[in-house]
Structures are given as structure tokens and as C-alpha cells.
Amino acid sequence: MTAMNKARLHFWWQSWQGALALLLSLAALATLPLLADAPEPYNPITMFSVFLLTIAAAVCALLPLPGMLVAITLFVCTHLSAAMLIAGLAGNEGKATGALYMLVAADWLLAWRCVSLLSSVRTRSKSLDGLLRLIIPAIFGAWILILWEVATRGAGIPFILLPPPSSIAARIATSLPILWADVQQTIFKAVLAGYILGSGAGFLTAILADRFTFLRRGLMPIGNLMSALPIIGVAPIMVMWFGFDWQSKAAVVTVMTFFPMLVNTVAGLSAAGTMERDLMRSYAADYRQTLLKLRLPAAMPFIFNALKINSTLALIGAIVAEFFGTPIVGMGFRISTEIGRMNVDMVWAEIAVAALAGSVFYGVVALGERATTFWHPSNRGG
Fold first, then answer.
1. Half-sphere exposure of residue 3, counting CA atoms within 13 Å on the CB side?
2. Does any domain span residue 166?
3. How far is it, in rounded angstroms, from Cα 215 to Cα 237?
4. 243 membership: H or E segment, kind and range
5. Are residues 226 and 310 in the same domain?
6. Which of 26, 278, 322, 378 has its CA 20 to 30 A from that of 313?
7. By 3-state DSSP, what share of the chain in percent is helix, strand and coil, each rounded to 5?
8. Is residue 210 classed as helix, strand or coil in its secondary structure?
């Protein structure tokens, strides 16, 4: 086999998503209609456009064209086709046929090929690399929502069991004042206060435990024990101690974030190498100088690891704690009350807002880690 034939075979092997998408598109065309007994079927122009976009994208994926050009073409065609298919499902819930699912599967395969091509792009621009790092997970996440939407509307799944993302988005848009009040109560008050108190107290206690051996030997086993405490057992006690307002939720968050910071910081303070410590001793550095100039910088990856862990624990702890008593506002309160009223779309709206807030919180901590520990091997080279 010649080198050219090997290259062609390798290209065709990498482009299998395009070939399979083309087969699915032709199979969908042969098994029309897309909707069975629908009150509002797709009009011919929409159907022609969907098939044209999907087949054109599949053929483009099979041609030996520049990777970026193919990726852009696939991105535009697949998302336009999926948008038109989803728009036609509104009002036709439960009427989807196998042809529609085959078209959606073809678009998904082409989006997969698009992500694969974008992942293989190598650029010399840091800004373009950063843009690609955002676009690739955005496409991946968008297709999770697209498949969710098609599955729930196409199969006619009752909204009370699993509402489609469009319904959740509509509920978010119409409930912004309520959601904002819940975010203020849960995140800006309980989560941030407990996060700062718990992480700060854990850090300071770790410094003392590192300085005094008896504290380290006594606290570490207790820390491992306390980290296993169930939150549903701690939350009611904190509500009894600190009342029904946000202070009791902040206390729960403090308990949950204290020991991860303690354990990680103590481990990080032992991360400095023997040679570096000997060098500091040769300079006649005392404990404080060694701590500030060697051991704390070496412990920063461990400290930020604890901060990232705590960013998710804090949000979970505050929301769960609100199930056990809270004023008439808060994310946990809203979830527990709305599920009792069978307003499942509002529950999912709160979950979506909590997930978004948690992701932003985690991202801010991760950016702080990159800015602080730029010297660490895990952050070299961008």
C-alpha cells in the first residue's frame, strides 16, 4: 500500500461520522414523514432546508478540505438544521417518527466531527486558543440540551417528569426577580460568609497545626472524622443554634469547608523539598521566613485545590441546609416548596441557576489559581 493510499484510508477512517451521518440522512429521507399525525406538520420548505443542510454538511465532512473550513461549515449547518427541527416539535409533542430521530442523530454525529476538528487545531495565538477552549465545551453542552429537547418533546414525555430545556429557560426568563432574591439569600449571604469563615479558619488552624506537633497529631484524625459527618445531621442542629435566617446556613457551610482546607493546607506545608529546606537553614532563616518564602508558596496548589473543593461544597451545603428551615426566600426553600406544588420547571430553573453560579464560583477560584501558581508545572505553557 502506497503512502498516498494510507493517507486516504486514514482520512476516511477519521471521517466516519460524516459517512454515517450521510447514511442516516438518506434513511430519514426514505422513511418520511418526520411527524406522525401532527396537527402542525413541517412545511415543505423547512423539510427541504433541513435535509439540504444535513446532507451538505455530511458531504463536506467527507471531502479533503481544510480542517477549519470544514469545522465552520459543520457548525453552521448542524445547528441551523437542529434549530429548525426543534422549532417544528413545538405543539407536536409525542408525534416524532424514526425519520426525525435519524436526522437529529446525523446532526449530532456531524457536530461530533466538528468538535474533533476544532480539538485538533493548533494555533500560535493565545487568544484564539482561549476561544477554542470555550467553543468546544459550549458545542458539547449545547448538544446535550438539543438531545434533551428532542427526546422530551419528540417522545411526549410529561413535563412534570422531565421538562424540556426550552420550558426551563422560559421559566427562568419569567421568574428573574424571584431567582435573584434566592441567589442573594443563598449565595451572597450564606455561601460567601460560610466559605470565607470556613476556609480562613481552616487555613489558620493548619498553620498552627504545622507549628505545634501536638495540634497536628490531634486535629488530623478529628478532621478525617468530621469530614464524614452527614450534612443532613449537621444542618438541623445549626438551625436550632443560629436560627432560621442565613446565619445557620453559613454555619453549615463553615463546618463543611473547614476540614478540607485544614487537611490540604497541612499536606501542602510538607510539600517543600528537603534540599530547599536545607538551603533556607543555611541562610539562617527562622520559622516565619521559611514559612512565608518557601513552604506557603509550595503549598499554594494544595490550598487552591481545597478552595476549589470548597466552592462546590459550600453551595451544596447551603442549599441542603435551607431544606430544614429558612425564611420564605432561598434556593433550597424554593426547591422544596415548588416540588411540593409540582412546579417542576421552577425546580429545574433553580437547579440551573445554582449550577451556573457554582461554575462561575469555581471558575473565579481557578483563575486565581492560575494567576498565583503560574510557576507550577501544571500551569506552564498556558
1. 0
2. no
3. 27
4. none
5. yes
6. 378
7. 80, 0, 20
8. helix
